[in-house]
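Q: I'm building a small set of examples for a reading group on sequence design. Run inverse folding on the following structure and report the sequence directly after it, with nothing in between.
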């Protein structure tokens, strides 16, 4: 439980409680982590259960970056937020690491199992046929194996999830981004139609792609036109100035 409410309810002084807590810690009877104080055996049992769930996730889905923290919390029967957070911090102080929404062993390296490698190859091939106007995510992930392989490729950064059912190979995404920046730099404010024609893609792809660039601070929408974000223009100017000096 949290230590602060415990202190407020106690008739003992802070010094007496601190001394007693230290004595119990030295005897390995309690665990104190952050604002949480727990019976040592109860805490170790909870920690062991969490580790078992994480290890099982690594074994069952070696292609994934780790176990989703929401899944772990549900598996642990929805511990109070402060207890769950203390548990995660305790794990990450040892052999585990938090990576965004997931937790994994430090030694874990995502890898596609043999039964998903063919699916990954087919996804790469499908997206490379029309790199600037590829099949939609739904058309790619037609079965569980394809879905798992696609998730792996996205997590590893090989494929970019643009949004609105659009996915692109990383190389294609970067080529499109560079083309947009070059076009706007040369022509000035540009419409969706201008950029769609320049990239020879479809409206289905270019609209979410440009919205992705807006969110990333590459482009900025002004009505029906896109300009380069002020930060990008400033960085480019500073880079050119440095070259001249």
């Amino acid at each position: 439980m949290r230590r602060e409410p415990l202190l407020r309810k106690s008739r003992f002084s802070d010094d007496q409680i601190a001394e007693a807590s230290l004595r119990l810690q030295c005897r390995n009877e309690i665990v104190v982590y952050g604002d949480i104080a727990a019976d040592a055996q109860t805490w170790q049992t909870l920690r062991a259960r969490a580790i078992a769930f994480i290890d099982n996730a690594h074994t069952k889905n070696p292609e994934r970056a780790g176990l989703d923290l929401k899944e772990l919390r549900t598996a642990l029967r929805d511990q109070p937020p402060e207890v769950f957070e203390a548990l995660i911090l305790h794990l990450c102080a040892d052999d585990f690491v938090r990576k965004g929404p997931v937790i994994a062993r430090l030694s874990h390296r995502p890898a596609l199992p043999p039964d998903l490698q063919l699916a990954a190859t087919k996804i790469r091939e499908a997206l490379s046929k029309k790199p600037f106007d590829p099949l939609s995510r739904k058309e790619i992930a037609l079965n569980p194996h394809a879905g798992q392989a696609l998730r792996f490729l996205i997590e590893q950064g090989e494929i970019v999830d643009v949004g609105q059912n659009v996915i692109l190979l990383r190389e294609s995404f970067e080529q499109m981004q560079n083309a947009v920046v070059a076009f706007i730099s040369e022509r000035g404010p540009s419409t969706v139609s201008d950029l769609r024609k320049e990239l020879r893609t479809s409206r289905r792809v270019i609209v979410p792609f440009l919205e992705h660039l807006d969110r990333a601070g590459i482009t900025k929408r002004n009505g029906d036109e896109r300009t380069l974000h002020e930060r990008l223009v400033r960085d480019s100017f500073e880079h050119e100035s440095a070259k001249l000096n």
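The chain has a mean pLDDT of 87.
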